[in-house]
Write a structure and sequence with these properties.
The chain has an 11-stranded mixed sheet, sandwiched between helices. The protein folds into 2 domains: 70 residues; 151 residues, 3 Solenoid (Pectate Lyase C-like). Helix content is 16%, strand content 26%. It contains 5 helices and 11 strands, in the order βαβββββββββαααβα. It is of the alpha/beta class.
């Protein structure tokens, strides 16, 4: 099923998508999307696939629970906000606050991501969210990370550092994988344990790397040709001493 989004108000467009899914449609193509917000928000259905041509607005796939969404261009801020399950592929760059409080599913961004990606991301019961970005990231990557996995590949940095300042600030769960060289100045080691990723650690995320490579036509061998650094929290309460007096 195809829907022409040209000039359609975002509420009307989302109503059309929801009605199509409720009517049994499994493959939906949206064309001429230009900044409409909340596409796929709260949508359910593991066998539903949405293909977006154009640039969707903020909070794409927010609270989504199962579908697969392919954006054939860039995505704006807040995509995968509190996403519960499903897969989101962005075939360009994505904006700020990708995966805010995300608690399940996977996000794959072929290019760069903005600021505060993965902030407050958390695991939920048996779910463990994942974000894989193929380019570089802005400041506060993985800020207050509580669970799940962030992977930054740096395949095309376009002159940018791999990751910006304050990477992993307040991390108290989950892990961050950085591929290739990065400036240690950008990683706050007071709360973060830093080590080169061992073979078994890379094996644990190989499935996500394969999904990224397959989704965007990238060589998995090229991805694995560079070493990875893994960042983990030293403590589950990194700022506890600031709020609680010791006995």
């Amino acid at each position: 099923m195809e829907i022409d989004a040209r000039g359609v108000y975002y509420k009307q467009l989302n109503e059309q998508v929801r009605e199509a899914v409720a009517g049994g449609e499994k493959q939906i193509v949206l064309r001429n999307v230009n900044g409409q917000r909340y596409i796929g928000a709260g949508l359910r259905g593991k066998d539903v696939r949405i293909e977006i041509h154009g640039v969707p607005g903020n909070d794409l796939a927010a609270f989504m629970d199962g579908p697969t969404v392919h954006v054939m261009n860039n995505a704006q801020d807040g995509c995968a906000n509190t996403m519960n399950a499903g897969r989101l592929y962005v075939h360009g760059d994505a904006g700020d606050v990708v995966g805010y409080a995300m608690r399940g599913g996977s996000v794959y961004v072929k290019g760069d991501v903005g600021y505060r990606v993965g902030i407050h991301m958390k695991a939920y019961k048996t779910q463990a969210p994942v974000i894989v970005a193929g380019g570089a990231a802005g400041d506060f990557f993985g800020e207050y990370l509580a669970g799940g996995t962030l992977i930054l590949l740096g395949l095309e940095r376009n002159g940018h550092p791999l990751v910006g300042d304050y990477c992993g600030t307040g991390i108290h769960g989950g892990q961050i994988y950085l591929r290739g060289e990065y400036d240690p100045y950008h990683v706050g080691t007071e709360q973060i344990a830093v080590s080169e990723a061992a073979d078994e650690e890379l094996q644990s995320v190989r499935g996500e790397l394969e999904a990224f490579a397959e989704g965007f036509g990238v060589s998995l061998d090229e991805i694995l040709a560079e070493p990875f650094t893994v960042l983990r929290p030293k403590s589950h309460r990194p700022f506890g001493d600031l709020y609680v007096n010791r006995p």
